[in-house]
């Protein structure tokens, strides 16, 4: 299976980068063809410009500025997000990726006023997230990233398929042991993806 892995952490020597590299290695070990998309390393421009917004519904012209990313998404059979959670949301670069790449005609189409997915070719979805907050604080805040992955993205891809959701909470108080345990969990889960 061809798996698109989206990474959105700007620091090279970080735990987030270690999670990304482990995800890539484990997916390959599991027999998958991996398309590693490190948004910062690729200098992805997350800004939805005025021009982009005006052309938003004009498929296929709306894809011209992000065509390589659109093609990668269209070829994907699996999707894995590896990202930190900042202020109970995704980093701006990942949010911008969704705004600029998941366009009408690419990820969805409006048919008689109803949204129809164009991502049914993606058969599996996973997320590897790190939170500064505890599970309780994330719950109290409504845990928007978890809802986006398990509800919104899942509905666009296939609402009947399970989602692999891995989260290391309370990074503000993590230890080498908690990080090692989570890294091992990511290794095992991605090998079985």
Automatic annotation (TrEMBL):
Keywords associated with the record: Oxidoreductase
Domain of life from the UniProt record: Bacteria
Positions of the Flavodoxin-like fold domain: 1-135
GO cellular component: cytosol
GO MF terms, alphabetically ordered: NAD(P)H dehydrogenase (quinone) activity
One Pfam family in the UniProt entry: Flavodoxin_2
Keyword set includes Metal-binding: no
PANTHER family for this protein: NAD P H OXIDOREDUCTASE-RELATED, NAD(P)H DEHYDROGENASE [QUINONE] 1 ISOFORM 1
Family affiliation: Belongs to the NAD(P)H dehydrogenase (quinone) family.
Protein name: Flavodoxin family protein
Lineage: Bacteria, Pseudomonadati, Pseudomonadota, Alphaproteobacteria, Hyphomicrobiales
């Amino acid at each position: 299976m061809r798996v698109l892995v989206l990474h959105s952490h700007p620091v090279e020597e970080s735990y987030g980068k270690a999670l990304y590299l482990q995800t890539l290695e484990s997916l390959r070990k599991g027999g998958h063809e991996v398309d590693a998309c490190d948004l910062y390393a690729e200098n992805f421009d997350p800004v939805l410009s005025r021009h982009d917004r005006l052309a938003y519904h004009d498929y296929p012209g709306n894809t011209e500025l992000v065509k390589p990313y659109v093609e990668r998404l269209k070829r994907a059979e699996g999707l894995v997000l590896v990202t930190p959670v900042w202020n109970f949301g995704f980093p701006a670069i990942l949010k911008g990726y969704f705004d600029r790449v998941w366009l009408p005609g690419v990820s969805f189409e409006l048919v008689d006023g109803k949204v129809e997915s164009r991502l049914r070719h993606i058969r599996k979805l996973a997320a590897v997230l790190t939170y500064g907050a505890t599970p309780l604080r994330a719950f109290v805040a409504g845990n928007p990233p978890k809802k986006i992955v398990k509800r919104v993205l899942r509905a666009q891809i296939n609402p009947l398929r399970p989602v692999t959701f891995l989260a290391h909470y309370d990074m503000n108080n993590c230890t080498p042991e908690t990080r090692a345990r989570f890294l091992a969990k990511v290794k095992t889960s991605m090998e079985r993806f």
